[in-house]
Design goal:
This protein is of the alpha+beta class. The chain has two domains: about 140 residues, Immunoglobulin-like, CATH 2.60.40; about 160 residues, Roll (C8orf32 fold), CATH 3.10.620.30. Strands 1, 2, 3, 4, 5, 13, 14 and 15 form an eight-stranded antiparallel beta sheet that branches. A five-stranded antiparallel beta sheet has the order 11-10-9-8-12. The chain has a two-stranded parallel sheet with strand order 6-7.
Length: about 325
């Protein structure tokens, strides 16, 4: 499947700001399961854009604007081919208990609790309800955890924010995909199953497109597998992975700061469409206009830009 993604961010300020610095994690990954054929980043203000790879292998673009301004528009557009051969849960024969000493070094970062993926009495209660029996297939248990989250928690916008820990979801019973992914990661890690956070997009034909978050699970006999607790399913060719990390704090698509005491309003919209074939190299010069409404978020003075992912996930 060939998917075109447009992700527009507009930042507006109540008065001019300067020394505006930001970094973006918006370019889809290229790996054995998907291929980003083209990526185009357009900024409304004159600037030089640079990039680097962070410690998780995510491509991070960054730039700064020194001149005072009151509005910035950033458009990230990409063409991604998905549907490449993917490993599935059914292929794994791993059973409990898992021998963590056999895990490769690169997965060890995805075992400890940290940040929003925290241990707490509320998590221990959930953990007790999901205890796997010795000899249980890990793949079957992962699906059980996904069903538990789907059945017990309600998807609702504006209940949590980008700083919320899993305790907020466990207390209110409501949240968005970011919260569901964090909770699933916490449960898996509590039983020694390495799990990491994924940010990206989900293409839904005939429905609104949106930024999305899910998790990936490490199984010793097959490697990393994607699972989406929000939709209670394995990641498929409708999913486009952008960045991975230990939790949301490693992968916000937009993080930055500026000098000035202005109020900041962010307007975001995301659109995806399926293409019949790979476009020409100049495809970004003829992008279809975005025909989806924007979602707005106003933050108080001296805010940073790190809340955009949560805002998009509530579209």
């Amino acid at each position: 499947m060939i998917i075109e993604i447009q992700h527009e961010t507009r930042l507006e300020y109540s008065e001019p700001v300067s020394e505006w610095l930001t970094e973006l994690r918006m370019q889809p990954a290229s790996d054995e399961q998907q291929s980003c054929h083209s990526f185009h980043l357009a900024v409304s203000q004159p600037t030089n854009v640079f990039w680097y790879l962070d410690g998780f292998g995510n491509r991070v673009h960054h730039f700064n604007l020194l001149a005072p301004h009151q509005q910035v528009r950033v458009l990230a557009a990409s063409v991604v081919e998905t549907g490449l051969p993917q490993r599935r849960l059914a292929e794994s024969a791993a059973t409990f208990p898992l021998a963590s000493s056999a895990d490769p070094c690169e997965v060890l970062d995805f075992l400890p609790f940290r940040g929003p993926v925290c241990d707490s009495p509320r998590l221990q209660s959930v953990r007790g309800q999901l205890a796997p029996a010795d000899g249980c297939r890990v793949a079957d248990w992962i699906e059980q955890v996904g069903r538990f989250i789907r059945d017990r928690f309600e998807y609702e916008r504006d209940v949590t924010d980008s700083t919320s820990t899993i305790d907020h979801l466990l207390e209110t019973g409501k949240g968005v995909c970011q919260d569901f992914a964090h909770l699933m990661i916490a449960v898996l890690r509590s039983y020694g199953v390495p799990a990491r956070y994924v940010s990206g997009y989900i293409h839904r034909p005939d429905k609104d497109s949106q930024s999305h978050a899910w998790c990936e699970v490490w199984l010793p006999d097959v490697g990393w597998l994607g699972y989406d607790p929000t939709n209670c399913c394995e990641a498929s060719d409708w999913f486009v992975r952008v960045a991975i990390g230990r939790d949301y704090t490693d992968v916000p698509p937009n993080r930055g700061t500026h000098r000035g005491g202005a109020d900041e309003t962010i307007r975001v919209r995301v659109a995806t469409r399926e293409l019949p074939r790979l476009p020409s190299l100049a495809w970004h010069e003829h992008l279809q206009p975005l025909d989806v409404p924007t979602t707005s978020l106003k933050r108080p003075r001296h805010g940073t830009l790190a809340d955009e992912q949560h805002q998009q996930q509530q579209q």
